[in-house]
Amino acid sequence: MSGRLTGKVALITGAARGIGRAQAVRFAEEGADIIALDICGPVDTVVVPPSTPEDLDETAQLMVAAGQNVVTEIVDVRDADQLQRAADRGVEAFGGLDIVCATAGITSRGMATELSTAAWQTMLDINLSGVWRTCKVTAPHLIARGSGSITLVSSIAGLRGLLGVAHYTAAKHGVVGLMRSLANDLAPHGIRVNSVHPTNVDTPLIQNAAVAGAFRPDLDREPTRQEFAEAARTMKHARHPLGATGRCRERLPVSGLRGGALHHCGHAARGCGQYTAIAGRRFRKQAGSETRAPCSRTHLWPRSSPNDHSSETRGVRRWEWCA
Ligand SMILES: NC(=O)c1ccc[n+]([C@@H]2O[C@H](COP(=O)([O-])OP(=O)(O)OC[C@H]3O[C@@H](n4cnc5c(N)ncnc54)[C@H](O)[C@@H]3O)[C@@H](O)[C@H]2O)c1
Prior knowledge:
CATH superfamily: NAD(P)-binding Rossmann-like Domain
Shape: globular
Radius of gyration: 19 Å
Bound molecules: nicotinamide-adenine-dinucleotide
């Protein structure tokens, strides 16, 4: 069956599970071959249960089930040499590269003034510098093709401040700055760079005792899945007590990203359709968690062009008008 990414090759970090695996599955369903990278092990200062080599194998099996080829490598995005070798080997196996998703990421918690130096540095090293390293080692392969798409996975924490995760928020905002500069650097080579900003997505990153507990600090026990879901919906403890209380429509299942952010990644690589010229944009998948505009001039939001059918694109334009 011919898909929208037939003949394309995608490299994805953090592909053993969660959003990275969902990207890999979606792209494979559309006909892409996949270079799937992940650390598959624990990271100091992180209490979220780690992914495993078996998780990465399972991703590979899903690629095969979708009829696509896959190369997997256990790689730490903090190690530039490892990353370079893995990217080069994957590109050699498939003969080129078209799509890059810098998705690997961690979470941990702590008030800004109480974070340990190790927690701060590890966060920045993976969630920001790891994204930069991924771009650095893969960009030459895209340049060699003369086209391509890089998608950096940020977060709603890359659009506004969240409580108790200053290091995560700083890294995810940093990803936006990197994306904007990289979009300019790589535009002459026909390569587009964008960031996606998911809200709470039902993956192991948040579906664990540490994160669920942080969403319900009023309880002296681990919240039930239902209690966590309700807290995630209101984001009550994720913002300043005096701040706005926008409600999150729902916690997105991983598949909830398919219609939007993943769709943009795919179109980006194909270089056709309405997304051909989109670069340097932030695609928000916030499910209503960011319902208030950053300024009061909401009545000045411009109308989208008649050719623009992308709600994400309209959202970005609105944001930029007000920012
Ligand atoms: N789940 C959410 O609610 C949510 C919301 C917004 C943004 N995000 C972002 O989406 C991305 C994916 O998160 P997820 O929810 O799928 O989490 P996840 O924990 O399920 O998956 C993250 C993957 O990244 C890998 N990884 C971590 N450190 C690595 C390293 N140093 N080198 C290589 N791989 C490494 C992990 O092993 C894991 O397989 C992250 O960047 C995260 O910050 C997630």
